[in-house]
Amino acid sequence: MITLLGSTAARLHLRLFPRLRTPLLSFLLFSIFQRYRSTKTGKLASHGFASMAAMSSFPPQRYHYFLVLDFEATCDKPQIHPQEIIEFPILKLNGRTMEIESTFHMYVQPVVHPQLTPFCTELTGIIQAMVDGQPSLQQVLERVDEWMAKEGLLDPTVKSIFVTCGDWDLKVMLPGQCQYLGLPVADYFKQWINLKKAYSFAMTSWPKNGLLDMNKGLNLQHIGRPHSGIDDCKNIANIMKTLAHRGFIFKQTSKPF
C-alpha cells in the first residue's frame, strides 16, 4: 500500500505541476510523503501488523511452546555410576516466533558422588563451588513444576513439548536417576523432540558430532562453550529457529512411555 501511494503521489506531481518541477517543490512533496508514510507505518505497527509480517516467515508449528533442555551430569573416564544431573537448564521457546520467552536454570548438588572430577569440570566448565550447597534433584524438580505452572505450561489447552539434542537426557539420564532415588517422573518429561532426528529429516544428513555439526551444516556460529548446559540450550534454540525459517515443522520423535 505504501509503495502504491508513493507512486500515485509521484504521478500527481508530474500531472498537476508540470511547470513547477523545481528542487524546492520536489523536496517539499517528498517530505510530505515521507511524513505520511512514517505515520501509516507507525499505525500498522501499533496494530500488530508489523509483528505479524515478521512471523509470516515461519510455518505454523504443532506446539505453542518448545521447552529446550540439556542436562550436564557427573562424569569421568572411565564413567562413574550412577551419573547425577548437576545442571538443569530449560528455555521456553515461542512456537510462533521461535524466540526465547523464559529461562529456568539451576545447578544441582550431587549426592552419590558429591565431589566433581577434574574431567567433569574440564568438560562442562562446572566447578565444585557451583554445585556445593545447591538444591537436590528432588528440590529442583519441584521448582521446575512451579516454573511450568507459572509459565502456563500445565494448562491442558497449551501444547508444549521438550526438545533435546539426542535421547539421552529424557530417555536415560532423568528416568535413571529418578529410579535410583525413588522419585516419580512427571508426565511432561515423557515425550520430546530429538533435535538430531529433526535435523536429519530436514537436512538429509545425520549430525555425528551433534550441535557442532548442526551449526556447521546451517552456517551458524556456535554460542558459548560446548557442554555448558545453558549454552547448549541456546544453540539448540538457534538451530530450531533456523530450521523453522527454512519451513521445517517439528514433530515428536520419542515413543510414549
Structure in words:
There is one protein chain. This protein is an alpha/beta fold and 257 residues long. The chain has helices spanning 2-16, 23-46, 49-55, 118-124, 128-131, 137-150, 168-181, 195-203, 211-217, 229-245; strands at 65-69, 72-73, 85-94, 100-107, 160-164, 192-194. Strands 1, 2, 3, 4, 5 and 6 form a 6-stranded mixed beta sheet that branches. β5, α7 (168-181) and β6 (192-194) form a beta-alpha-beta unit. α1 packs antiparallel against α2 (23-46). It holds the Pfam family RNase_T. One of its GO terms (molecular function) is nucleic acid binding. InterPro entries: 3-5_Exoribonuclease, ERI-1_3'hExo-like, Ribonucl_H, RNaseH-like_sf, RNaseH_sf.
**Strand segment tally:** 6
Please give the alpha-carbon distance between the first and last residues. Answer: 53 Å
Strand content: 5-15%
Tell me the radius of gyration: 26 Å
Q: Kindly state the mean pLDDT as a whole number?
A: 84
Largest sheet: 6 strands, mixed
Total of helices: 10
Give the overall silhouette: globular
What would you call the structural class? alpha/beta
Low-confidence stretches: 1-55
SSE string: HHHEEEEHHHEHEHHH
Helix content: 40-55%
Cofactor: Mg(2+)
Keywords: Exonuclease, Hydrolase, Magnesium, Metal-binding, Nuclease
Protein name: ERI1 exoribonuclease 3
GO molecular function: 3'-5'-RNA exonuclease activity; metal ion binding; nucleic acid binding
